[in-house]
Design a protein that fits this description.
The complex is a heterodimer of chains A (296) and B (249). By secondary structure, chain A is mostly helical. Chain A has helices spanning 2-23, 30-36, 57-68, 111-120, 135-146, 151-154, 171-183, 187-190, 229-238, 254-267, 275-284; strands spanning 43-46, 49-52. Chain A starts with a helix and ends in a 12-residue tail after the last helix. Chain B has helices at residues 2-30, 60-65, 97-101; strands at residues 36-45, 88-93, 109-113, 116-118, 121-125, 130-134, 140-144, 157-159, 166-168, 174-179, 187-193, 197-199, 205-211, 214-222, 226-234, 239-241, 244-247. The longest helix of chain B has 29 residues, at 2-30. The chains are: A mainly alpha (296), B alpha+beta (249).
Chain lengths: 296, 249
């Protein structure tokens, strides 16, 4: 009786293993990745620090492998406990597709981008801030992350977008930002008040087909890719690859982009960045965008 | 028994080598001669599955544009005489390296019109430029989702009303699904192939132009029914015929 049960469960687990391996993207092997460990891409440069992938083997095993997995495919043993949409799955480094970049959509991020992501962590996910690790350790981890994907062997990171110096906040700029919000139809997903309740918000999925939520400006959460004014500028100009958030670089001029940043700030509840924007919006008595208004 | 088996295997492999050699010689010789073409019709055998209508109530502008002629899903499009539309035909085997790497200069256009993709399936050559346009007064995002491990890199760009066209290309052959996240019903395909290709029109007919004389395997790809193949031989300056029939499921 017991042996029967045992063999049956063994069989089922084998079937499950096959099913799982067939369901995900083609897996890279440790052997392939070990070869990339000796390539030039397995190093990183952030500021005046140089990272070496081999030095990060141990820290990765200690801090990262539980979620991101030994092959960097995001299938660590903890990953099953992070079902979407409540959680986001750990990043699959093999695909080389990253949300937070300073580079245009469809290109690899810079070493600095990956370093910032590790340092900052991701708000509303299981990825914590890793600023407790030394800078050198984080730079080494960047190099280690790069050795997981074939993309770093053939591609170079994109050219970071240029962010002009931040202008002075004026009522005209906040108002103009609202016009950009209306023209680009950000409200389709983010809602007219930035509450992530736009008509398309409920059907959003990421590149792997998992449900994903639009960013809610009003609940006090921080944007995943950083919460400085420059970070917000970068988010909509580069897009968050792998998610429904597209790049607006071709359609928003740098001047307008700053206006939009100021308007988005006014949607957030009071925080350490937006006192001025909120005050201006309040004085202007800005009303949310009306999507049904005739086009101007 | 075993010996017989291995003998048969040897005979088969010898024939294969011979055929391969002969075809190489033929295709080499023929590259100078006038180019031929492959034509044919793709039909659906059986009743076309019902394509359900699309609820566009998420976007009032889309509803208005489609009020006179309601849009429906385009997974299987059957036209006149059972002809199957939006089937991509390409040469999957037999092209010489030279013919496969030649790039057409035409720029295929993928238009976002009335909250649908026109055409629903856009075929192109690997490395060939294509253009994404919008004719709509509502914002779209254009979001192809290839497998980055295969060599094509996903991207995601916005196209609000009046946005300039986007010109891009793909590196390797792949069937790439493309969608708009703002309008979740909008889904189409970028079919990237190597070498000459064609897409069937309303009555299911197609013509692959500029095919150098030679023996080829032609593949017909339909998004719901998959791929069928057929062998054809193209003579110099002549048209070879390859008709396909997909069974309705």
């Amino acid at each position: 009786m017991y042996t029967n049960l045992l063999s049956r469960s063994l069989f089922l687990s084998v079937v499950a293993a096959f099913w799982l391996s067939a369901a995900s993207y083609a897996q890279l092997t440790t052997y392939q990745q070990e070869q990339w460990l000796t390539s030039p891409a397995a190093s990183s440069h952030v500021g005046n620090l140089t990272g070496d992938a081999k030095a990060a083997a141990l820290p990765y095993r200690r801090y990262c492998v539980g979620c991101h997995g030994p092959l960097g495919d995001g299938n660590g043993e903890n990953a099953v406990w992070m079902p979407p949409p409540m959680y986001q799955q750990p990043r699959n480094f093999q695909l080389g597709v990253f949300k937070c970049r300073s580079t245009p959509t469809g290109t690899l991020p810079t070493d600095q981008d990956l370093f910032d992501a590790i340092t900052r962590g991701f708000d509303r996910t299981n990825m914590p801030q890793w600023n407790a690790l030394s800078k050198q350790e984080r730079v080494d981890l960047v190099a280690w992350i790069k050795h997981f994907s074939p993309r770093w062997q053939t591609e170079k990171p994109g050219t970071p977008i240029q962010i002009p110096p931040e202008p002075e906040i004026t009522p005209e700029r906040v108002k103009a930002g609202l016009d950009v919000f209306a023209k680009m139809q950000c409200y389709k997903c983010h809602g007219v008040q930035g509450m992530a309740n736009g008509p398309s918000a409920s059907t959003l999925t990421d590149d792997l087909g998992q449900p994903i939520a639009a960013f809610n400006f009003t609940d006090g959460s921080r944007p995943k890719c950083g919460d400085t004014d420059q970070d917000i500028y970068r988010i909509f100009m580069t897009g968050l690859d792998g998610t429904p958030m597209p790049s607006f670089a071709d359609n928003i001029k740098p001047e307008e982009a700053w206006n939009l940043v100021f308007y988005l700030r006014s949607l957030q509840p009071h925080n350490s960045f937006n006192a001025k924007e909120r005050e201006i919006a309040h004085q202007l008595g800005l009303k949310p965008v009306n999507p049904n208004a005739p086009a101007q | 028994m075993k010996r017989q088996y291995s003998r048969a295997l040897a005979a088969v492999s010898a024939t294969l080598v011979l055929v391969g050699f002969v075809s190489v010689v033929i295709s080499h010789k023929a590259s100078a001669a006038a180019e031929g073409k492959i034509t044919g019709t793709v039909k659906l055998d059986g009743t076309a599955p019902h394509m359900r209508g699309i609820d566009m109530s998420k976007d009032p502008w889309c509803v208005k544009q489609n009020s006179s002629d309601p849009a429906h899903l385009q997974l299987v499009e059957v036209g006149k005489n059972g002809g199957l539309e939006n089937v991509v035909l390409y040469i999957s085997q037999g092209l010489s390296g030279e013919a496969a790497s030649a790039k057409p200069t035409a720029v295929p256009v993928f238009n976002q019109k009335n909250c649908m993709y026109t055409p629903h399936v856009l075929a192109m050559d690997a490395g060939q430029d294509f253009k994404v346009e919008t004719s709509d007064q509502t914002a779209h995002n254009i979001h192809p989702n290839p497998n980055p491990l295969a060599g094509n890199i996903p991207w995601n760009q916005s196209q609000p009303p009046g946005a300039p066209p986007i010109v891009k290309s793909w590196k390797v052959a792949e069937m790439i699904p493309v969608k708009c996240n703002i309008h979740p019903w909008m889904s189409g395909w970028f079919v990237v192939v190597k070498g000459p290709y064609a897409t069937t029109n309303e009555d299911g007919s197609y013509t692959i132009e500029n095919v150098p004389p030679g023996s080829y395997t032609v593949s017909a790809w339909q998004e719901t029914y998959g791929t069928q193949t057929q062998k054809v031989t193209v003579a110099a300056g002549a048209a070879a015929t390859a008709d396909f029939t997909f069974k309705a499921k």
